[in-house]
Amino acid sequence: MDIIAQGGGPLVVLWIIVGLVFGGLLVVVIQQIVIKARAKAFEQELNARVETAKKQAETIIKEAKLDAASEMIKKREQFSAETSSKEKELRTQELQLSKREDVVERRSEQLSQRERKVNEIEKEASHQLQVNQEKSRELSSLITQQKNQLLKITSLNVEQARELLLQRLEEECDREMGQLIQRKVAQTEEQAEEKAKEIINLAIQRYAAEQTCEVSVSMVDIPSDDMKGRIIGREGRNIRAFEKATGVDVIVDDTPGIIVVSGFNPIRREVARLSMERLIQDGRIHPTRIEEVANQTKKDVHSRVIQIGKEAAEEVDVRGLNNKIIGMLGALHYRTSYGQNVLRHSVEVAFLAQVMADELGLDGSIAKRAGLLHDIGKAMDREIEGGHPDIGANFLRRFKESPIILNAVEAHHGDIPADNPYTPLIAAADAISASRPGARRETLERYIKRLEKLEEIANAFEGVEGSFAIQAGREIRVIVDAQKINDDSAVKTARDIAKKIEDEMTYPGEIKVTLLREVRCIEYAR
């Protein structure tokens, strides 16, 4: 400041200005240098990046080329494989087409041959038709001539000749029917006999029951003949009171030591028997005491009937029976059929039906229930009109038994058609139980009448020379005239006899019909 003050100021200012200009230039030069250096560095960096990009681009191009080449190779291989597969398929189809063409050619040849044969057959048939027409005309002419000659020779009119022709046709039909029946019966027997025998034998072997037979009267032992007088009472009043209270007949005869109690109702007869035994033991026999004992015995017998029915149901293992049904089952204990106890028969039928049902793949419990109840109508048939199958079915219907049980009860004697497979089983078991040896017995009079009826039915047929009932009525042998009945019609005659026996007779089990046809040729040498 002192220099400027001394007058050296312009120079200093000049130097300052020069310094400033020089500094500014220096700054500009430095900036230019710096800018150039930065531009060079940027250019170098840019070049490096370009080089790097080029290298990366080359690498990508190489990789793309390699991928493209690999993909191309895969495509070529896939195309080659597909082409090979298609070629194989085409070759296979070509072979198949070739075979089909061969088959078509062969069939075409066969059709051509058949066509030629058909043409030949048509020609031959046409020729044969003409020949047949000519022969038919000739035959018609011959038949007319023979008919006229026959009418002249036999002096028969047209109606008589027609009857003769119809008779011959009927004989031929009978012969053909006999042959048909014989074939069908043989075929059916071959298919069913073995299986039926197996099932029935198994059922019989698995159930073997003892059978007790009872009669329609009861015997009461008395200690002495003096007791007879006390039982009769003054002017027979005790017997009348006893018969009125029990509903049975008391027979007092000269037979020593017994009194006979007779009645159709087995329950009443049992009540009367027990009442008489109690009166004899008690010794007090007068109308009032008789009435008291009879009433008490009725209650005891009713309880006993219920107990017997329960025991039978438990033995067969049938559940859910109404008490009234059980009571009717117990009543069957006092009922007999041809001497066979009906309750034991029903139990036996139940077991037999169950075994057969099990063998056939059916429900054994249903068959067992139906078998136990099938004869329940016999407990009421003396009090209600009608057959015991119908009575039993109507009784069980009141207690909502199933339709299968009802049909088995109602149809086990063939009164109505069976609508289920259990009904034939019950019918078969019923027949087995009734027809087995020792199960039933008949009176001599009824037995003789049945044998006579069998022979009478067989003798009524034309051509029968004689018949003989054998095997206690289980078989009938029929001898026929060989001149009137040939081998074919013999089968039909045997079947007709068996059918008539089925329709007109009632019997347990089955009856075998054996027809014998004998041809004897006799000649004498002189």
Provide a descriptive summary of the structure in words:
By secondary structure, the chain is mainly α. The chain folds into three domains: 1-116; 217-435, Hypothetical protein af1432 (Orthogonal Bundle), CATH 1.10.3210; 444-517, K homology (KH) domain (GMP Synthetase, Chain A, domain 3, 2-Layer Sandwich), CATH 3.30.300. The protein is 70% helix and 7% strand. The chain contains 14 helices and eight strands. It has a three-stranded antiparallel β-sheet with strand order 1-3-2, with helices on one face. Strands 6-7-8 form a three-stranded mixed β-sheet, with helices on one face. It is elongated and about 205 Å long.
Short description:
This protein is mostly helical.
Structure keywords:
526 residues; mainly alpha; Hypothetical protein af1432; GMP Synthetase, Chain A, domain 3; 3 domains; three-stranded antiparallel beta sheet; three-stranded mixed beta sheet; 14 helices; 8 strands; 7% strand
What is the name of the CATH topology of the largest domain? Hypothetical protein af1432
- Structural class, please? mainly alpha
Shape: elongated
Arrangement of strands in the largest sheet:
1-3-2
In DSSP terms (H or I, runs of 4 or more residues), the helix count works out at 14
Q: N-to-C SSE series?
A: HHEHHEEHHHEEHHHHHHEEHE
- The CATH first-level class of the largest domain comes to Mainly Alpha
Strand tally: 8
Strand residues, percent: 5-15%
Estimated radius of gyration = 59 Å
Give the tally of structural domains. Answer: 3
Distance between the termini: 208 Å
- List low-confidence stretches: 1-7, 207-215
Largest sheet: 3 strands, antiparallel
| Average pLDDT rating | 80
What CATH architecture label of the largest domain applies? Orthogonal Bundle
**Residues in helix, %:** over 70%
